[in-house]
Every structure is written in structure tokens, then in C-alpha cells.
Write a structure and sequence with these properties.
It is globular, with a radius of gyration of 20 Å. The chain has one domain: TerB-like (Orthogonal Bundle). With 209 residues, it is an all-alpha fold. The chain contains ten helices and no strands. Helix 4 packs parallel to helix 8 and helix 8 runs antiparallel to helix 9 (178-191).
Length: 209
């Protein structure tokens, strides 16, 4: 099963792209979904061994015991109930985590492209997260065709998410070329992040602007 929060946490933990800002910056970042992603990957890595060694629980048969809703009478269709709030929230977190992954990859490619050596480096650094086939294929596709700034910005729907997109993009970039500095300036403008907010994010990460 594709686990976007685990994958995002793995990328952050390994300092993807190339800055080397890893798990040690967790307390400095400590914001929203980024913190959740850190916790998700740590939980996964700490429990992966136990999960693989245990047999797990067999799924229960809903027709054996317990209560269930009977089918509606013929001719009377009952619309399905809306998904519970917790399910909606989980879906939103997954979607936001995918966006942050895409933002990191787009930022790492800000100086033009990610060559094959860089792609393999990123993938190899994610080995500790034990990517499944679906997660690995997703990363490979994103590395081969990173999103544009406009594509990233179009999916941001709150000031909080905008700050997280900027933060993970900053982690994944070197900021030592004109192209990369221009990328971050443009990203901030597209996300509506003013200079004061940018300064705060850079200061949290201990990075000059």
C-alpha cells in the first residue's frame, strides 16, 4: 500500500535533496504534516522488524457474528453514507504529503534537471524506509518529470500548507546558484509568503536567505 506520509518522512529524514538536513532538524521544523511525517517514518522503521516477524491478524468475516445493516427493500435505494470525518482527514493528509514530496523533488531539480546519478543517490538513500513497488515507481516517475512551480502552487489551499511547501523545498535545495535562488524567490511569490515569513522559516532551519 502506498504510504505518502512514510515516504515524505523518509525523504526528510535522509535530507533529500542534497542539503543533508536530516532528522536532527525535527525539533527545529516541528510544524504540521512535516512533524507527522517524521513520526510516521520513525514508527515504521522502529516497528518494521516486528511487523515482518509476526503473523498479524486474519481479517474477520462480517457475516459471522456482530451486527450489520440489512439490504434495503426492493425498489428502495438508500444512498451510501458519507465517509467519516476521520477518513476525509486521512485522505487530506495523504494528498498533502504527496504534494510535499513533489515540492521537494521539484526544488531539487531547480537548477535544470536531476541526472541519473542524482536519481540513484536519492533512491539509495531511501533504502532504509523499505519502499514498496508502488512507492518506488512513484518516486522514479516524479524524479523523471518534476512538477513546475505553478503546478505545485495550484494545489496549495491554505497558508499553513504554503509554509510547509516552502520549508520542504528549502530543505531539498542548495541555494548556491542563481537558478536555485530565483526558484525559491518565485516559489515564495506564488505561495504568497512574504519576506517576514521567509525569514522565520530560514531562521528555524538555521539557513541564511
Amino acid at each position: 500500500m502506498f504510504n505518502a506520509e512514510k515516504l515524505l518522512g523518509g525523504m526528510l529524514k535522509q535530507g533529500i535533496g542534497m542539503k543533508g538536513i536530516g532528522i536532527g532538524s525535527k525539533t527545529k521544523i516541528g510544524m504540521g504534516l512535516i512533524g507527522v511525517a517524521f513520526a510516521a517514518v520513525e514508527h515504521f522503521m522502529n516497528n518494521a522488524q516486528g511487523q515482518t516477524s509476526s503473523g498479524g491478524n486474519m481479517p474477520t468475516n462480517s457475516n459471522t457474528g456482530g451486527s450489520f445493516a440489512p439490504p434495503p427493500p426492493p425498489g428502495k435505494m438508500v444512498p451510501p453514507p458519507p465517509p467519516p470525518a476521520s477518513q476525509i482527514q486521512t485522505l487530506k493528509k495523504e494528498q498533502d504529503a504527496v504534494l510535499l514530496i513533489r515540492a521537494m523533488i521539484a526544488s531539487a531539480a531547480a537548477d535544470g534537471y536531476i541526472d541519473e546519478k542524482e536519481r540513484q543517490n536519492i533512491i539509495s538513500r531511501l533504502e532504509s524506509v523499505n519502499l514498496n513497488d508502488e512507492e518506488l515507481e512513484f518516486i522514479k516517475k516524479e524524479l523523471a518529470s518534476p512538477c513546475s512551480i505553478d503546478e505545485i502552487a495550484a494545489q496549495v489551499n491554505s497558508p499553513e500548507l504554503a509554509k510547509e511547501v516552502y520549508t520542504v523545498s528549502l530543505i531539498a535545495i542548495e541555494m548556491d546558484t542563481e537558478e536555485e535562488m530565483s526558484y525559491m524567490d518565485t516559489l515564495a511569490a506564488r505561495l504568497g509568503i512574504d519576506q517576514t515569513a521567509r525569514d522565520q522559516i530560514h531562521n528555524k532551519l538555521g539557513l541564511a536567505i
